[in-house]
Amino acid sequence: MEVVIAPADELARLAADAIEERLRREPGTVLGVATGSSPLKVYDELARRHAEEGLSFARARAFMLDEYVGLAADHPQRYRNVVEAELASRVDLAPGALCGPDGLADDLPAACAAYEEAIADAGGVDVQILGIGTDGHIAFNEPGSSLASRTRIKTLTAQTRQDNARFFDDDLEQVPRHCLTQGLATIMSARHLLLLATGRGKAEAVHQLVEGPVTAMWPATIVQMHPHATVLVDDAAAGRLQLADYYRQTYASKPGWQGL
Ligand code: F6R
């Protein structure tokens, strides 16, 4: 696991560099996309590179991490609509290239199984963008999630619903209670994980993620077992890292050719 501590704009550029490098080398790259605030600057940077520097997503595919259950197809907070607005519609991703679990399916377990199959059929995710919840969730794998989990239905914790109320006019009642989410094992199958976290509110979750024992109580700690994981954090989110100085020195003395 590599930890990079830098200002938020630089983190977004670094994440975009890794995605661009991969896309230019392999135009048919399979991206894993997250929603929430954490990846927004990355999507802005990718959209800018598409508009100004010809970065193309025409042959790429994108798989979402999760989706709320039961939000109407045209609801602006439905994750498919969010990713469409924040990324897909701003680049040249082909129609049909954005895939997500179907939170409106009549048979939700079947929709989850179909989603796992779709990811496998695409050859798996090459670069997965992740955020982290204040309770240590990745995607919507809340504390207590099986470390071997696959895409399934989960119940959101009170903490996550509270955190996400800001996207629903600060009205907790509007925040769905259930979601479909890639499991921890699904996420661990991606070839490169790029996890972004900014702000003091994420400091404890980031500390546990990087330095805590691997435990279902902090689901993101499973990322310690991944062979290629990059944790991109600003000073505030790095605030509780015991080895912050070591991570800073390591990154500062990294050879330029190495990339993330
Ligand atoms: C969303 C997702 C979640 C968020 C997490 C952090 O697709 O997978 O795990 O990444 O809740 O959300 P923000 O970035 O809004 O703080």
Structure in words:
The structure is a single chain. It is built from eight helices and ten strands. The protein has helices at 8-25, 40-53, 79-86, 108-121, 158-164, 184-188, 203-211, 244-252; strands at 2-5, 30-33, 61-64, 66-68, 98-99, 127-130, 152-155, 178-181, 192-197, 229-233. A seven-stranded parallel beta sheet has the order 1-10-9-6-2-3-5. The protein has a three-stranded antiparallel beta sheet with strand order 4-8-7. Helix 1 (8-25) crosses helix 2. The protein is globular. The N and C termini lie close together (10 Å). The structure holds fructose -6-phosphate (F6R). Fructose -6-phosphate binds at residues 34-38, 65-66, 131-133, 137-139.
CATH class (first level) name: Alpha Beta
Give the number of helices. 8
Binned strand content: 15-25%
In whole angstroms, how far apart are the ends?
Answer: 10 Å
Order of helices and strands: EHEHEEHEHEEHEHEHEH
Sheet of most strands = 7 strands, parallel
Catalogue the unreliable spans: none
| Ligand list | fructose -6-phosphate
Radius of gyration: 17 Å
Number of domains: 1
Q: Give the CATH topology.
A: Rossmann fold
Q: Structural class from helices and strands?
A: alpha/beta
Q: Averaged pLDDT, please?
A: 97
CATH-scheme architecture: 3-Layer(aba) Sandwich
Find the count of extended strands (DSSP E, 2+ residues): 10
| Oligomeric state of shown chains | single chain
Overall helicity: 25-40%
Global shape: globular
Spatial strand sequence of the major β-sheet: 1-10-9-6-2-3-5
